[in-house]
Amino acid sequence: MSGPLALVGGDEFAPGCDFDAELLAAVGADEVALLATGSAYENPGKVVAGARAWFEALGVGLREVPVYTRPDALVAENVDAVANARFLYVTGTSPMHLRSVLKDTPVLEALCSAWAGGAALAGSGAGADVLCDPMVDTRGGAFTIGLGLLPRMAVVARSNLWSPDKVRRTVELAPADVVLVELPERTAVVLDPDGTWRATGVATPAVHRGGRPATLADLPQPAVPA
Length: 226
Prior knowledge:
The chain has about 230 residues and is α/β, with parallel strands linked by helices. The protein has one domain (about 5-220): Rossmann fold, CATH 3.40.50. It is built from seven helices and 15 strands. Strands 3-2-4-5-1-12-13 form a seven-stranded mixed beta sheet. The longest helix is centred in the N-terminal third of the chain and has 14 residues, at about 45-55. It starts with a strand and ends in a 13-residue tail after the last strand. The mean pLDDT is about 95.
């Protein structure tokens, strides 16, 4: 059975992100494996330090998996760290960089296998965006190819920082068969192992399909088999 999955709107590792403790408890993890790949060019050390302080306050350790370039995603030590993790966290601000680094690599294969085998998986900001297919190109709000763990689904991460016009354009551009979720910061949609989706965090996600309001019940199931 695949583990729980959380898509987080951003501003992770901060008060209000109580879902992290829930995910830790759900899989019995005593360490979190962090891929801050999407922040490769924006001080990833700061992201790692913030994550370490956050998870240590929750009583668990943090392991940085230093995958910042495509060659890093081929390193056996990084692949093993991902494959053996019980809680995987992918984050950053650039979904395009995340996709270019991870797509069709042993690290991505290990991530999918670990999650399918019961590990918890969380993606925040660009990490939430890139797990979907299509994914939103944050530079203009249009759509492009993601990593495909969640097909026919896309998210607007940090939607509270987007202008209403940019959100509306993205809703209008969404393919008719794609469910689009506006995810404010410190807010998540969580897919539990029983296949149900729920919202948690400090705000309420907005769901759209075909340009019209939808609900969490419309969110699809993952492509990775349980």
